[in-house]
Amino acid sequence: MTNTATRPSDLQDERLQNREGIRGTIAGFVDKIRGGDLGALPVVIGLAVIWTVLQILNHGFLSAANLVNLLLESSPTGVIALGIVCVLLVAQIDLSVGSVSGLSSAIIGILFVNLGWNVFAAIAVAVLTGVVIGWVYGQIFNRFGVPSFVITLAGLLSFLGLQLYVLKGIGTINIPFDSPLVIFAQLAFVPAWLSYVLVVIAAGGLFLSDLAKARARRGAGLSAQPLSLIALKSGALLIGLGFAAWYLNIARGIGWMFVLFVALVLILNYALTRTKWGRAVFAVGGNVEAARRAGIRVKTVYTSVFVVCSTLAAVGGILAASRLAASSQSSGTGDVNLNAIAAAVIGGTSLFGGRGTAFAALLGIIVIQSISSGLTLLNLDSSFRFMVTGLVLLLAVALDSVSRRSRTSHGRA
Amino acid sequence: MTTSTLDRSTAPATILSLRGISKSFGAVAALTDISLDVAAGEVVAIVGDNGAGKSTLVKVLSGVHLPDAGTIHFNAQPVAIPNPTSALDLGIATVFQDLALCDNLNVIENLFLGRELRPARLNDIAMEVRSWELLRQLSAKIPSVRIPIASLSGGQRQTVAIARSLLGDPKVIILDEPTAALGVAQTAEVLNLVERLRERGLGVIMISHNMADVQAVADRVVVLRLGRNNGDYKVGTVTPEEIIAAITGATDNAVTRRTSQVDLRTIQPTVLPDGTVEPPSSENLNDKETER
Ligand SMILES: Nc1ncnc2c1ncn2[C@@H]1O[C@H](COP(=O)(O)OP(=O)(O)OP(=O)(O)O)[C@@H](O)[C@H]1O
Ligand SMILES: [Mg+2]
């Protein structure tokens, strides 16, 4: 290395191969994949395969109208899956999200429709119920050390029972079509012009923040992304999102409920990657004892994660009730639970803890919803849906285990 | 070094003081009635055989284990150290024998774990710059700080763990076998570091099995044997043989016998007919020893 002095201070080790510029980025990416750090790659490839197959089987599948619906359908369970990502990151599980979402639907139905409460008050109570449930899980987990699997299994049964109890003699509560909830979940779409504005804001925001980061890194004497790469990334985002918006706008466009889901994904992504809390979550998932010795309040982290998960489950329940325009004894039952957990895992969240992103929920639920929607279009009933979803889940978990092994051998555990 | 030793002897400000510390794990009494004093600007080496209770003592001091009995004074105040956070808050930083790093996090994330800069909007750049400073100070040979800890070698991890203890503003640093996995240059750097820490007036507790390292940097040597205090020596007034005798509990012990009589090279491994090598058997060893 003749030019050591001129190299950024983080790239001075002579064993480091030159990985600068766009070529270097691609080479680094290939290294990562080889090392078993698959990230979102399998789910993106899987989605492409599933979409191609379903489109060949039924030409209506990739129509704008179907995709608009698909995204709306994804949102309630996707929000629940987001919470599952959090608990999986600390290597725990919450099996009760379906029941909690059902209970929250029931609360909305009773308070808002039957008792005529203000909609925001009803939402607040439902969400608060989620918070309290998560807090209780956290306390039981921390105090008695009961495995989360068992605690939440008990929760699954208890809250399902509670939901059935409060709806006893009522059966199904229909939420009026002119209520803000149903309008939000079924009829409210982002105007075309606004969708393009949002796309430009997203791409521009990425460009500016990357640019500012690169400048700050260079100022601190560290290596930074070259301008060309930054421009390429945000350009790709602009084109990708722009095309998606244009295509969806052929039909009704992008539903506000899906926008809410994406906003929650982005917020959680920020919290997990850019805050102290997020670091603590990953540390606890990676090595609890090390996290504890580093002075992290491990119990608080567990509680916070259970609270986030149950709260998002409650929000998902509200969205599901709004989408269906009804809350009933069957809300949140059936496959909601398993779909939410499967979505998080299919999206690339490791069951072993310490590995995953908020985007896993988004990608995973789109895979699951695509299967569901495609098979419905083919007039195949839920029996097939279960079998195919089960198969995809198995594939995802197998991939997780294999890539974990590969990571270990490539030193990326 | 000698001048600073003299300064300290005139004004010894005891920063950490343990009395009567006991800790059992079930039927095993890992620590019994342990006393230990550490002054500001003093390096205390704790030595002892495997299982003597050194790491257990470290864990009591760092809040990992609660002692069953005994008192701890920090800056002349009685304190309890119920959890690692309170140890860190007091200013006791520890490098654990098992390092306690998170494999899934990268070097920067591990270094700043629990002490991230700007909690609500992490300042990655400042943390990365500081990480490089710390690691260079220790002559760390780490190619990149943005790779997961899992991909580092044992010695590189140890360096990261040591670097982590320097963050913040510790008053006492505890190093549990800090140089066990280190190369020559890195060991020298760690010993230099220990001396720098002493000059900065920190109390340093160093656990080591390496007598040369202990003699090189320690001011005092505290010997533990089977969970009890078994000697407290000032370096310079004691020979390695005396320390070893205290560690093993006898002047006539395996170590002195080996160093004085047995020449290892005379014990040849046996090459079996199929070409494999059989290590010298224990009878072999005994034979050699009785032969003398
Ligand atoms: N968590 C634990 N549970 C039960 N017993 C333990 C535990 N930690 C240590 N011990 C016991 O306490 C005794 C002292 O162990 P310790 O780790 O303190 O030894 P050490 O002096 O650090 O030895 P080494 O030189 O091998 O590191 C041992 O007998 C060990 O078996
Ligand atoms: Mg030990």
UniProtKB/TrEMBL annotation, chain A:
InterPro entries: ABC_transp_permease (IPR001851). It is found in: Cell membrane. Keywords: Cell inner membrane, Cell membrane, Membrane, Sugar transport, Transmembrane, Transmembrane helix, Transport. The keyword Transmembrane helix applies. It is a multi-pass membrane protein. The chain crosses the membrane at residues 38-58, 70-90, 119-137, 149-167, 187-208, 229-248, 254-272, 301-324, 336-352, 359-378, 384-402. The keyword Phosphoprotein does not apply. It comes from the Bacteria. GO terms for cellular component: plasma membrane. GO terms for molecular function: transmembrane transporter activity. CDD domains: TM_PBP1_transp_AraH_like (cd06579). PANTHER family: ABC TRANSPORTER PERMEASE PROTEIN YPHD-RELATED-RELATED, XYLOSE TRANSPORT SYSTEM PERMEASE PROTEIN XYLH. Part of the binding-protein-dependent transport system for D-xylose. Probably responsible for the translocation of the substrate across the membrane. This is Xylose transport system permease protein XylH. It comes from Subtercola boreus.
TrEMBL record, chain B:
Keywords: ATP-binding, Nucleotide-binding. It comes from Subtercola boreus. PROSITE patterns: ABC_TRANSPORTER_2 (PS50893). Pfam families: ABC_tran. The keyword ATP-binding applies. PANTHER family: CARBOHYDRATE TRANSPORT ATP-BINDING PROTEIN MG119-RELATED, SUGAR ABC TRANSPORTER ATP-BINDING PROTEIN. CDD domains: ABC_Carb_Monos_I. Residues 16-251 form the ABC transporter domain. GO terms for molecular function: ATP binding; ATP hydrolysis activity. SUPFAM superfamilies: P-loop containing nucleoside triphosphate hydrolases. Residues 265-292 are annotated as: Disordered. The lineage of its organism: Bacteria, Bacillati, Actinomycetota, Actinomycetes, Micrococcales. This is ABC transporter ATP-binding protein.
